[in-house]
Structure formats: C-alpha cells, structure tokens
C-alpha cells in the first residue's frame, strides 16, 4: 500500500558530501513525521535525524552540525544532506515515516536502505 524508496548512497572520501533521498508512494493520505536511521555492521540501528510534517527537526549528537534533514511535502520526499563525512558515518541509512493511508490506517514504514561508505 505504501513504499519508501531511498537513493543517493555511495562511496565518498572523508570530508566529502552525499545527499540521500527518500520518496514515499502508494495509497497515501498524509505523511506525518519522517526520519533517517543508520546501522553500521554489527551495531544497533540508531536515529540520525527526524522532521515533522510542519518542518520541526531534531538531530543526533554525532551529526555535530554536519547533516541537514529536509522534506518536500508536494513530492512526499525527504532528504538528508550529509557534509564533512567521516569514516564512522559508514553504514546503511534507512528512511522511516509515519503514514496514514487512504484506507484509514496509520503505520510506520521503512525503506530498503542505502549504503553509505566513507573512506579514510
């Protein structure tokens, strides 16, 4: 009924930048809060940043002012601009969203994940 598709991951050198995108599609009535999570090999998934439907944002401490989360409500798309990347930023980045469908259900959805690799 609803799909989240991520793109924009890749391999970059330390200090480089990437812009991740997450597009929601399907039988969407409304998209509420959205967020980015990441998971390094052998570690727990952790919250990176969240953004409400009104544009209010919160970031994890390890972002240290380097990342910016944003959204385009007309496109049902969320972005994560990642600057000054460090090797410890390496991991699979996942899109998450709370979405109400046209059938009346409100649920949390996950994207398939996109790999971000930052070399030393």
pLDDT averaged over residues: 96
Q: Please describe the biggest sheet, giving its number of strands, its sense, and whether it closes into a barrel.
A: 7 strands, mixed
The first-to-last residue Cα distance is: 41 Å
Quick one: how many beta strands?
Answer: 11
Approximate shape: elongated
Describe the protein in words.
This protein has 120 residues and is mostly beta strands. Helices cover 0% and strands 62% of the residues. The protein is built from no helices and 11 strands. The strands form 2 sheets. Strands 2, 4, 5, 6, 9, 10 and 11 form a 7-stranded mixed β-sheet that branches. Strands 1-3-8-7 form a 4-stranded antiparallel β-sheet, with no helix packed on it. Strand 5 and strand 6 form a beta hairpin. It is elongated and about 50 Å long.
Fold topology:
Elements: E1 2-7, E2 10-13, E3 18-26, E4 28-39, E5 46-51, E6 57-59, E7 67-72, E8 77-82, E9 91-101, E10 106-110, E11 114-119
Parallel strand pairs: 2-11
Antiparallel strand pairs: 1-3, 3-8, 4-5, 4-9, 5-6, 7-8, 9-10, 9-11
